[in-house]
Amino acid sequence: MTAFIILAALLALGVAALVAWPLLRRGAAGAPARGAAIAVVAIIAVGAALLYPTWSNYSWNEEPAADDPQRMVARLARRLEREPEDIDGWLMLGRSYAVLEQYPLAIRAFQRADRLSGGRNAEALVGLAEVLILQDESNLAGRARQALEQALEIDPRSPRGLFYGAAAAMQRGELKVARDRFQALLDLNPPENVRPLLAQQIAALDAQLAQESSGGSAPASSGTPSPSTPAAARDASPAGQAASPILKVNVNVAPALREQVPESAPLFVIVRDPDRPGPPLAVKRLASRFPQSVEIGGADSMMGSTRFARGQQVLVIARVSRSGGATARSGDPFGEVRHTIGADGAIEILIDRLTP
Asked: What is the dihedral of CA 282, 128, 11, 301, to 10 degrees?
């Protein structure tokens, strides 16, 4: 059980990162796009892991088998060969394959559950949407969106359908739809540690909707950038730079590991608080070219409330994802350096070891 909770949390973080990449890179699109990216990350990365134990149909009180996840999944797959009509079993198998990043098998399992239910199982459709997003973030505007909308037609009160459906609506700029879905989710009386996340997101969407209805203009005499000011412009302003310094990072790979870095594998540059677990402070996804220089700062913040501060101690990690996923896996080449924000000079990271 504990292993599955951890894996589900990692799945949520992976979905969050993939959903956010297209939005975070649209700096020229202005504050609405950047704000949507931050909100999607905050809600999915933190909320999904908290909501899984409450609103999935997994038997959380069941005594876990003393086994590793791969063997548990293999045993479940063999049981379903004998009991192919077990919809709940196919749903569990789909979630298990997803957290093990075996996405094609996860898709097949959720599709099997969908077929067995005659296309009337919202859980199968939401699970399918999650995996489609992990496999290719562009699916959020395509197949995943269709699956989420179909799930909400079947069950308008599906918590996870509302949750991901709201995130998808934010991604495509349908703020009113997103707001209504978050409100419906809040009305379902979620856990106390989730309610503030939803309430804050609803308030933020209300503010943005009010701004759009009023024309979105700020007084010309104001010296503070308005919410409609493009994020890139805010970051370039003196106030933005003071609030969130930019880290300059040079990344190279050790000669002994060059052959273990696939050309198609993405490079993640990650900034973490070394003393606090949880989502990273900032992340950038790049092509694996070496040597490579990158700047990472407040614009790459994973959470709306997170900003770099001078004198802050951080851990900067450069990791090549051999699987292409957002979460670290055994065998991924990486390097890391502790750094004090505001110190002179670029941060030099050598990728010289493998993830255990």
From this structure: 10
- Burial of 223 by CB count in 10 Å (0-12 exposed, 13-18 middle, 19+ buried)? exposed
Does the domain at 2-213 match CATH 3.90.870.10? Answer given as no
Strand partners, 292: 251
- Chain-centroid distance of CA 51 in Å reads 14
The DSSP secondary-structure symbol of 46 reads: I
SS3 310: coil
List the domain boundaries for the chain. Answer: 2-213, 243-354
Residue keyed to tokens 């106390």: 192
Tokens representing 12 are 């949520």
* pLDDT one-digit tens code per residue, 45-104: 445 545 554 555 444 444 444 456 788 889 999 999 999 999 999 999 998 888 787 889
Are the CB atoms for 10 and 130 separated by under 8 Å?
A: no
Q: How far apart are CA 164 and CA 354, in angstroms?
A: 34
Instruction: Return the CATH number of the domain spanning residue range 243-354.
Output: 2.60.40.1120
